[in-house]
Design goal:
Blueprint: H1 2-12, H2 17-24, H3 28-36, H4 43-52, H5 57-60, H6 70-119, H7 131-164
């Protein structure tokens, strides 16, 4: 809601993200993140944003404006806290998904190595006098060779990803 309001009010004022960012002394990407709902401005920037857009803070937060009261600031702070909590939950969910994917990729690569070791290279004993057998054997050998070169890199990358996305307490 906050991001949509910032974008709508910015556009009605005829400002680009870059122009608004210059007024607030932030980078354009910060304004973009606010508008996409990926982050929220802190209380000081919210007030500066309100001044730059010539709009009350309550309008940015989606309420009709009345005369600012000290309680309004508490309400704004509570809403920002809720938005920050939602963003933190979203980031945690994405981190858990990425962690699971990294672990699954590690398991898949390890399983492929075990399968290849267990099977050996059965195509080496094939009769390559037939065209189909020759093509299939060459393709199998090429895939095995490629996996033996790329698999360890993928495994290490996934292991590092799993380590970096683990839950820290």
């Amino acid at each position: 809601m906050l991001g949509e309001n910032i974008k709508a009010i910015r556009k009605t004022k005829g400002l680009s993200q870059q122009e608004l960012a210059v007024k607030l002394n932030v980078v354009r990407q910060t304004v973009s993140k606010w508008e996409q709902g990926l982050s929220v401005p802190d209380a000081g920037l919210l007030i500066a944003l309100s001044d730059a857009l010539e709009t009350p803070v309550s309008a940015l937060l989606g309420e009709t404006a009345a005369a600012p009261q000290p309680e309004d600031f508490k309400a704004v702070a509570a809403k920002l806290e809720v938005i920050n909590l939602q963003l933190a939950q979203s980031r945690a969910r994405k981190r858990r998904i990425l962690h699971g994917l990294c672990l699954a990729l590690c398991a898949l690569v390890a399983a492929m190595f075990v399968i290849l070791l267990a099977l050996g290279s059965p195509y080496l004993n094939w009769d390559y006098s037939g065209v189909e057998t020759a093509v299939l054997g060459t393709a199998a050998h090429s895939l095995e060779w490629l996996f033996a070169r790329v698999g360890p890199v993928i495994f290490i990358g996934a292991a590092v990803g799993a380590f970096l996305t683990r839950k820290r307490e």
